[in-house]
Every structure is written in C-alpha cells, then in structure tokens.
Amino acid sequence: MADDRKSAEEALPSNKMSEEDKRSVDALNSASAKVVHEVVRLQGDEELARPIRSLLFSGFAAGVAISTSVLAEAFLQARLPDTAWRELIVALGYPVGFVIVILGKLQLFTETTVTAVLPLATNFTLRNFGRLMRLWMAVFLANMAGTFFVAALIAYGIIVEPDNLNSAVELSKAVLQHDFLTTLLLATPAGFLVASVAWMMPNARGGEFWIIFFVTYIIAIGGFSHVVAGSTEAWILVLSGQTSFLTAVGGFLLPALIGNIIGGTGLFAVVAHGQVRDEIKTT
Fold this sequence. Notes:
This protein is mainly α. It has helices at about 1-10, 20-30, 35-50, 50-65, 70-80, 85-90, 95-105, 110-115, 120, 125-155, 160-170, 180-200, 210-220, 225-240, 245-275, 275-280. Helices cover about 75% and strands about 0% of the residues.
C-alpha cells in the first residue's frame, strides 16, 4: 500500500511548482492509455444504445459520404498525365470521404470494430454481444446501401462526366485484382489503421484532420483493402457490367470484411484493451 501511495504521488506534478505551472502540466500532458480506453469505451456504449433507425440513417449517410473518396480520386486521375508519380497524387483524394465521415460522427463499420467492441471486452455478457451484433449488422448493411446508391449515380453517369466515369471504372478495377486470401490479408492492416484513428482521437487536440488524413493516405498508397470505401468501387464494376454481383461479393466484400474485422477487433481492440486490463481491474 505504501509503495502504491508513493507511486501515485510521484505521478503528480512536483509540489515545488506553482498552481499555474501545475495547470500547465495538466494541459500539456496527454491522456493515459487507461483514460483513452475509457473515453473510447463510453463512445462504444453510446453507439450500442442508439435506436436502430438512427444507426441505419447514420450508416447510410456514412456510405454516401465515404464514396466521395472514389469521386475525388477519379477527378484527380482524369486530370493528371499518366506518369509514375500520378498514383501518389491520386491517393490524396482517398482521405476525403473518411474526413467527412469521422469528423461528421457518422457510423462507419470499421470504426465500430474497436469502439463498440471495448464495452464487450470490458464486460463480456450475452447482452453486450447481442448489442454488438445488432450494431454491426445495421451499420454494415446501411454502409453498403449508401455506397451502392452513389455507385449507381456514378455508373449511370448521373453525377459525373464521361471522362470521370471512365477514370472511376479504371480505378475500381484494382479492388478485384487479388484472390480471396490476398484481399483478406491486405484488409487486415486497413482494419487496424482505421481502428487506430478512433483510439488516437481523444488525444488529437485539434489535430483530428491530420490524423485521419495521414492514416487513410497510408491505406491508399499501401493498396490496403477497406470494405466500405472499396464497396463503392465494387458496385461501380457490377453496375457498369465489368463484373458480376457474386464476384464482387465473394472476390472483394467478403474477404475485405473478414480482414477488417481481424485487424480492427482481433488485433487492435484486443491489444488496446489488453494493455489496460489489469489496471482497470485494480481500480
């Protein structure tokens, strides 16, 4: 007990400092892993408690919003020469949809692989498991409906000019260039990276935009597979006659979904909870 009390005292600002200096230390000091865990867990609890209608509308809006990533990339590619560096510039369009979705607090499936999982990891009950499955199914289906809606507007040339449509189709072909296992493996780091965004947000302190931008830019230039953003491209290929519905689902959506869950929940959420598990139990 004495050692614990001494450790707690050492974790506080020195008594030799003025009250103003102590407040400055608190202001500059980032939240501990335990605090971040609790913030994210509470966010997850709030998401799990939302009415199903709210989840569906928010999830649909997220699907529509994240499709702007494909539009932004297509617009850039249509206007850039075919050079070795074009891919790096085109990838700058990828974070656009994520910025809108995450800063807009819309329900994105891959974010819930960490936020909504922490309440279950902290208190593993059948009720929490059921709440998680309800959230995941509602948000994922709503995300898919949103991306399908925008893909239809793109594929039928309703919101894009012919040159931009051609760019969108060419860009979209990349989602089906790998086999099932390769897509799953490429989706795992994407799930981990998007989950890490949700974890870093409590300590962002005004840097939210740059966190989202750089993390999702890495997903783009790394060729990683994100099931929601990539579904827009898969639907474009289906609706433009480039591939079949079953190929899009079995060749991209299913392996990307599994990989994103493994990366977001199996890796990030488990590790994030594991690092503070004993500290939570002793408080």
